[in-house]
Design goal:
The protein is α+β, with helices and mostly antiparallel strands. Helix content is 36%, strand content 25%. It is built from eight helices and 16 strands. The strands form four sheets. The protein has a six-stranded mixed β-sheet with strand order 8-7-9-6-1-16. Strands 2-5-10-11 form a four-stranded antiparallel β-sheet. A four-stranded antiparallel β-sheet has the order 13-14-12-15. It binds ligand 2P0.
């Protein structure tokens, strides 16, 4: 039986997407800029389901009953494959799932990549982006390595700003909790759009933050990228906090990590952080500071572990038989 396996890496947004233009089509209401990371991997195997007449999804070996994120991409892709097959989809993450580590982005990007190869579809880039968005608004960014712009104004086109080797920074992912988040990004975004008094301000600032980050990355200007990334992150968490009910993904350990980041800066290390819909802190730093930063954070906080990553590449098909 033919099986196809593909891998994709998560991406972390430096200028973030939080809010949808269109919930039905899962369209983001703004542009975003991200960095793809290399040591974290979603690996997805697909093959025809000969046992059952529906799709089955297994994440880390456990069957999922909720297929709502994968059915829209699969329906879209079946228009190209003309296949009526039901599939078994087995996805493995080498990192905690659903806890603010972008597992949906890498999971969906690996599924779309595996599906395209399985049916030899030779899709256009915009068709892969469309398939990804239907599953996760941040997943198209995982189709590309390095620093990536997803442009809301240009039909969500995605382009590489710098290749993964062009600016060799490290990404240290501080795992504060492995618990799945209580409010999904999808739910949280709906609440914020409806209720946060600063949601319009958040939309209005997107263009400016995108331009600053785009130029900072092109110029490899660490200080400017730090300023805009942290400003954008703080504003997104303020939008969450001012929503009704108020949304907070941060914990005491998250805050202790942030204090330690300030201490490390005062010692002359170059680092900045971002935090997504979960308590984990992602630190972007110069590689020569990585070991000191890791040791300090492990010693001074209750962070469980730190994943040491570099900038990652695009998805890959591992085998087809
Ligand atoms: C981002 N996040 O830009 C932002 C920052 C979380 C905070 O995109 O509803 O899992 O499937 O589109 O893609 C997380 O959103 O949500 C996300 P859906 P997704 O990375």
């Amino acid at each position: 039986m033919k099986e196809t396996v593909a891998i994709a890496h998560p991406n972390f947004a430096l200028v973030k997407y939080w809010g949808k233009k269109d919930s039905k089509q899962n369209r983001p209401a703004m542009s975003s800029i991200s960095v793809t990371v290399n040591s974290m991997i979603s690996k997805t195997k697909i093959f025809k389901n000969s046992q059952s007449n529906h799709h089955q999804l297994f994440i880390n070996g456990v069957e999922e009953s909720d297929l709502s994120n994968i059915l829209p991409p699969l329906m879209y892709l079946s228009e190209f494959s003309k296949s009526e097959d039901y599939l078994v989809i087995q996805s493995q993450n080498n990192f905690p799932t659903s806890s603010g580590l972008a597992s949906s982005a890498s999971g969906i990007a690996s599924l779309v990549t595996a599906y395209e190869a399985h049916y030899d579809l030779q899709l256009e880039v915009n068709q892969k982006i469309e398939a990804c968005i239907l599953g996760s608004g941040s997943a198209p960014r995982s189709l590309i390595g390095g620093f990536v712009l997803m442009d809301y104004k240009n039909n969500y086109s995605c382009r590489q700003i710098l290749e993964e080797t062009e600016w060799p920074l490290d990404v240290l992912i501080c795992i504060v909790s492995k618990e799945p988040k209580k409010i999904s990004s999808r739910e949280g975004m709906l609440i914020s759009k409806k209720t946060s008094p600063i949601y319009q301000n958040w939309l209005d600032v997107n263009d400016r933050h995108i331009n600053i980050a785009l130029n900072a990355i092109k110029e490899k200007n660490f200080a400017r990228l730090k300023n805009v990334t942290e400003k954008n992150c703080k504003l997104m968490h303020e939008v969450m906090k001012t929503s009704k009910p108020s949304i907070s993904y941060l914990t005491e350990v998250t805050h202790s990590c942030l204090s330690e980041i300030e201490n490390l800066r005062s010692l002359g290390h170059k680092l900045f952080y971002t935090i997504d819909a979960g308590p984990q802190v992602k630190i972007i730093c110069e590689p020569q500071s990585s070991e000191t930063i890791k040791n300090r954070i492990i010693d001074a906080t209750d962070v469980i572990e730190i994943i040491h990553a570099g900038i990652g590449g695009s998805p890959k098909v591992l085998n087809e038989n």
